[in-house]
Amino acid sequence: MNVQKMNDLTEFSDEQKKYLEGFTSGLSIARSGGLGSSNSAAAAKPTTATTGPEALHDQARANTIAAAGKLVAEEKAKADKHPFEMWDEMRANAAAAKFPKGTDVFLYKYHGMFHVAPAQDSFMCRLRIAGGIMKSYQLRGVADIAEKFAGPFAHITTRANFQLREIPPANVIHVLTGLDDCGLTSKGAGADNIRNVTGSPTAGIDPQELIDTQPLCAEMHHYILNHREMYGLPRKFNIAFDGGGKVAALDDTNDIGFFAVTVGEGKSVPAGVYFRMRLGGITGHHDFARDCGIVIAPSDCVAVAEAVVRVFISEGDRTNRQKARMKYVLDRLGHDQYLKRVQALLSFPLVSLAESECEPRPAVAKHGHVDFHPQKQAGRVYVGILTPVGKLTCAQMHGLADIADKFGSGTIRLTVWQNLIISDIATENIDLVKAAIEAVGLSWKTNSIRNGLIACTGSAGCKFGASDTKANAMQIAEYVETRIQLDSPVNIHLTGCHHSCAQHYIGDIGLIAAKVDTSVNGDDEQVEGYHVHVGGGYGTEQGIAREVFRDVKAVDAPVLIEKMLRGYMANRADASESFHAFSNRLTVDELKEKCA
Length: 596
Ligand code: SF4
Prior knowledge:
By secondary structure, this protein is α+β, with helices and mostly antiparallel strands. 32% of the residues lie in helices and 19% in strands. The model is unreliable at 1-13 and 15-48 (pLDDT under 50).
């Protein structure tokens, strides 16, 4: 391990020792009982906890208390009982077909189990799949678990992952052990943990990639799984690796976004492929990750990520859930100071190099995750398959696993666009694969509306959702695709609430759900609807979308989206102007006039 071990005092640097002194005094104050009952849970922690994997977390809580901060309920729950020590309680609850109560609902999420009442009186289970890449036997396993123990389907998420839904309380243990049995896990997939590590979905097969990100995704994934201190952060945390391939990994929307770059001859570092690191992406809070001005050897990325997370553990806000993400630590410390803290934890120097000294990233194919594409391996192609905003039936999962085995290498690649890719298909089998995909009721054909259409769970399965995003997304697709054909890619994102799981702020068109006041037979009512934004993007199109239309009823959304796209086609500067460029060239008033 490159990072100095925080639980071994002999390895502490001077800075760390000084820091620990502050922590020890904070913890002493807490344990003296002089801080009031609101912090009693943390104050009651046994002293032994400060030397184990929880030491850094105990230290951060004690520092909060010493600074007269009031820990939120989630922090007290974490201090009281480690979620990975509640297996027996979970088994007992399952045997009695009971749901957890109180803060145990939060702690269950460490196991990837979300009790989603009142939206549904059942659990949702979110997996973690390193880089979104899995094998056919695992997909069959997911299908079988869904068939036996959950609703008979699975959703692909916007973190290239699977979620199972409609799990009765009696089946919780069956689902968790079933995932284990097929080499999958849901550990740390929810609550205050590092979520599924994403990477380039065409890793290892993309002709233009600079580096295969899959080994790094796997290394990061296993590092997290095997280091208990990497759980129970101040808030959730996202990490992505972009290898420069045709399909973007959206690294700039993550807390840590690593993106591969080539450095040519004659620079201050040896020529080769490195990663640059961006920090602080959280588009729901209107911020993208910002470049740190350094290049990192691929073999050092996981150690750097680990150090970034450790600083976040120490500095993240544990008193206010709204301000607990890493962005707010960066806002407070500044990137330079944050990076100094990271450097203090590393046994090798971080190397500065301006982004302008690196070669530009190879271009992204905005909808390159659909249709057939040649691989770097001669005679092989991969195919991106559309799903209805991520939903797959059990029969479809089995069918896709069969296709991957029969015509590919048994590899299935989930993408953040809620679709999937099957790779390693012999060119001569393309027509057979097309027929096989159609036989399972899915499509490989590029579709100007569905290619970039994503939706979060929404009100059908999430208590925060103000509208049924998935159903409304499909209504938009079915209405608009029969009326208008676009000749350039447009992404449409529907998200159910301000948590912005479908990242509406980076959509060409982004809809965030809202209850809309209306009148039905003279009575005031509220119906499902949206506020509509335009002009968001990522990478070279990076930007936060602007609101153009407010309080649009869900039933009116398909017609409005059609009008917006017609307005774009009729008013763009020329055929090469993208929707992104068009919607950023016009003012909001002009957009309202031309697109409604
Ligand atoms: Fe739920 Fe909101 Fe996330 Fe949608 S954006 S899945 S409604 S939390």
